[in-house]
Design brief:
Helix content is 62%, strand content 0%. By secondary structure, it is mostly helical. The N and C termini lie far apart (63 Å).
Length: 64
């Protein structure tokens, strides 16, 4: 028994990029909330542990 693949795709999104389809399907409130969350993440300081690790890596690269 063979299984027939369903080729009934949404023709309205054919030729559109993934981001274009996503924008069309995303309610404006969700998009705004995501933008706010992203901006909040960008404004966070880099943790001291990461800064220390980067300094160690740079120091090690200078020795080799």
């Amino acid at each position: 028994m063979s299984i027939k693949k369903n080729d009934d795709t949404d023709r309205s999104t054919a030729g559109q990029t993934r981001s274009t389809r996503g924008r069309m399907a995303m309610p404006p409130e969700i998009e705004e909330n995501l933008k706010r969350a992203y901006q909040a993440a960008l404004s966070e300081a880099v943790p001291d542990r990461f800064t220390e690790l980067l300094a160690k890596l740079r120091e090690k690269e200078g020795r080799t």
